[in-house]
Amino acid sequence: MSPHATASRRAARHHGGRVPVAIVIVGLILTMILALALLAPWIAPADPTRQVLMMRLKPPGTLTASGQIYLLGTDDLGRDLLSRILFGAQVSLMVATLSVLVSTLVGVTLGMIAAWFRGWIEVAVMRLVDIMLSIPAVLLAVLTVAVLGPGFFKLILVLGLTRWPRYTRVAFGQTLQIATLPYVKAAELAGAGAARILLRHILPNIAGPLLIIATAEFGLMILFEAGLSFLGLGIQPPAPSWGSIMSVGRQYVERAWWIVAFPGGCLFLVVFAVNVLGDWLRDRLDPKARVR
Amino acid sequence: MLRYVAGRLLQAIIAVFGVLTIVFTVMRFSGDPTLLLVPEGASPESIDALRTELGFDRPVIVQYIDYLRSLSHLDFGVSVVQRIPAFDIVASRIPYTVLLATGALVIAVGVGIPVGIAMAVWRGGWLERLLAAVVLTGQSMPTFLSSILLILVFGVMLGWLPTSGAGDLKALVMPSIALGALSMSTFARMARIAIVDELGKDYVRAGRARGLSLPGIVWRHVLRNAAIPVVTIAALEIGNLLAGAVIVETVFAWPGIGQLAIQSIQSRDFLVVQVIVLLISFVYVATSLLADVMYAFIDPRIRLAG
Question: Is the Cβ pair A5, B140 closer than 8 Å?
Answer without folding.
Answer: no
